[in-house]
Every structure is written in C-alpha cells, then in structure tokens.
C-alpha cells in the first residue's frame, strides 16, 4: 500500500481498543514509526513536540500490542486496533478522551 504522508511526512494514527472499540488516543506516525510498528507488533509514533520517534510504553510500561492495522480510503490515516497494557493517556486515564464537552 502506498500511504499519503502530509507535507511534514506524517500520518494521523487513531488508536482503538481491539476488544471494546473505545478510542484510546490519536497520534502521528512517520514512515519509520509505521515500519517499526509493523515489524515489532507494538505501537510506535512520532512526537511532533519532541521531533522524535517514541515507542508507546517504553518508559511507562503501558505498551500497546497491535492486533490489526487498517488504512482509511485515502491512505492518509491509519487505525491501530490494540491490546493496551495499562492506560493510554499520559495523565493515567485509560483513554485520552475522558473529558466530555458540554
């Protein structure tokens, strides 16, 4: 598959719990993060703020084991269906989407 990276070389990555379907987080992947994710079976992302690759859970232990990887119809967004070991959010919440907007 030929992915359509943006002008910064990034794809949007939506991370979903494989069992329950809950959206856990949204992040970015460059070609290297995508390759490492496919090869290792664990989620890798690209940090725009730190301008570097990061292996989810490398420091916290909260790794995400990728069960399935999907691309959207435009091939500019990927969906990772994962088994998450621990919380997805850096705040300690299970999902980064824990604040309902009223």
Description:
Helices cover 10% and strands 37% of the residues. It is built from 1 helix and 6 strands.
Number of domains: 1
Q: Percent of residues in beta strands?
A: 35-45%
CATH architecture: Roll
Shape: globular
Determine and state the CATH class: Alpha Beta
How many extended strands? 6
The major pleated sheet works out as: 4 strands, mixed
**Structural class by secondary-structure content:** mainly beta
The end-to-end span amounts to 40 Å
SSE arrangement, N to C? EEHEEEE
Taking all residues together, what is the mean pLDDT?
96
Instruction: Using the CA coordinates, give the radius of gyration.
Output: 13 Å
Query: What count of helical segments does DSSP give?
Result: 1
Task: Give, in spatial order, the strands making up the sheet with the most strands.
Answer: 2-1-6-5
Which segments are poorly predicted (pLDDT under 50) over 5 or more consecutive residues?
none
Helix content: under 10%
Question: Which fold name is given in CATH as the topology?
Answer: Ubiquitin-like (UB roll)
Q: What's the CATH H-level superfamily name?
A: Phosphoribosyl-AMP cyclohydrolase
């Amino acid at each position: 598959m030929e992915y359509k990276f943006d002008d910064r070389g990034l794809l949007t990555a939506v991370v979903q719990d494989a069992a329950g379907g809950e959206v856990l987080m949204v992040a970015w992947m460059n070609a290297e993060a995508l390759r490492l994710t496919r090869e290792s079976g664990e989620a890798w992302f690209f940090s725009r703020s730190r301008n570097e690759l990061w292996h989810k859970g490398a420091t916290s232990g909260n790794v995400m084991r990728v069960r399935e990887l999907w691309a959207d119809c435009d091939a500019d967004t990927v969906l990772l269906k994962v088994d998450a070991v621990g919380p997805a959010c850096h705040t300690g919440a299970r999902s980064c989407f824990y604040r309902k907007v009223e």
